[in-house]
Amino acid sequence: MLEGQLQVLNALDVARTQWYHFKAIAIAGMGFLTDAYDLFCISMVARLLGRLYYTVPGADHPGTLPINVAVAVNGAALFGTLFGQLFFGWLGDHMGRKKVYGITLVLMIFSSFASGLSFGKTAKGVMAGLCFFRFWLGFGVGGEYPLSATIMSEYANKKSRGTFIAAVFAMQGMGILAGGIVALIVSAAFERKYKPPPFNVDPVASIPREADYIWRIVLMFGAFPAALTYYWRMQMPETARYTTLVAKNPRQAAEDMSKVLNVHLDAEEERVERLVRSERHKFGLFSREFASRYGIRLLGTTSTWFLLDIAFYSQNLFQKDLYFSVGWIPPTDEMSAIREVYLIARFSTLIALCGTVPGYCITVAFIDVIGRWWIQMMGFFFMTIFMFAIAFPYDHWNSKDHRIGFLILYGLTFFFANFGPNATTFVVPAEIFPARLRSTCHGISAAAGKAGAIIGAFGFLYASQEEDPSKRSHNYPSGIGKKKSLIILGVINFMGMLCTFLIPEPMGKSLEELAGEVDVDNAENYYKVIV
Where do the TM regions start and end (predicted)? Predict the structure, then answer.
């Protein structure tokens, strides 16, 4: 039984907030901005792809992606992300956080750029190439989840740890916003240059050949923010907790953190040797000991993230379909292909500005004040309330006079998703598991979330189709409609509230205390390292 933390770990816990914290947030956060941009920008151009590659000459309506193609285009990156979270989460606990961190960034840069170079002689060839590169893009994105969260949690002091991890995750909101802004600027520039007429005026001229560049530029832009941080990411030292507790090199950890904190730290090699030999450092992920100590926690983190992402991704990926349903965007016949991209990007940017980004910012400000548990519970509660408020009187919101009310409720749903479980499900798994399994458990939790995202994306695509053929996408099968789909999402949010009871409150505690790797009674006073 340990009597207290190692000096180097205690030094990190009590360190005042300083420059290296902000540098770590910027480096990890830029990767997360790229993640969100790459995953969500496809929703800005999906309808454009349908017009470009599936419009039939002489048809009365512009083309749309066949349902199987839409599922593949939207789902390829999500499937890649799921596998990347599991693989790189495991790899981060075996090779080290820093080494794997560089691999994921290179993969993201290459795949993001290659996605825009998906060429082919047929529509099928172009879509196949796009799906291939977006799968590998997602694979790289998947690694960012466990590695960014684990690195930030292991660098942070315990007083502000939640704020720092949430600040990294808040860059997801900036990535979603950036996706809308880039699509807005690119489409506006092309529309000003080529001035295409609406489809019902001139079907051929409404889809200019040059519009093919729009989706390619939007997708390829995601490579640039990631490339900007590669050098700085490679200069970061490995986290002291990995170097000491997993790699068993306390001398290197003390040397690295002495430079970072500008204070002398002892290596304590004998104590580290006793520590790693103790029984609590020997059991594996699939052992009975792990199940008894951390099984309920892992069930809590996986179930809440799974349920959250069903609702969150179905809303994000298919916002554009709701815009058409409530009449914010005119019928497709009354627009050109470029105008449609512009309007979808404009409303997506508005939703991000009004609901998504403010929710992330308030979470950063209050997560170490209110606590993770209460923010998550409150978020799921209000998501349930507002989703039902949209769903049950859905016909009411279809009226032109009530569209502002719909915008407010829909924006509030996003606000409480982000000032709520979308942030906390990312933060908590990085805090409550032992160092040698931390990245793996975060990867498992995140992969459960992406499984929910896949269900939400695919399920909502099919389920949200109306029974009336005139109100659903061309050639799509009948579903239960948007109203019933939104009711189901409200029920899922309520289930997330119940699963939140499985999660402990990590606020104000050291990572070793949360993982049960230190004697709580003596941990606080064993070392007094004031940095």
Answer: 24-45, 65-88, 100-119, 125-143, 164-190, 213-232, 343-367, 373-392, 404-423, 443-464, 485-503
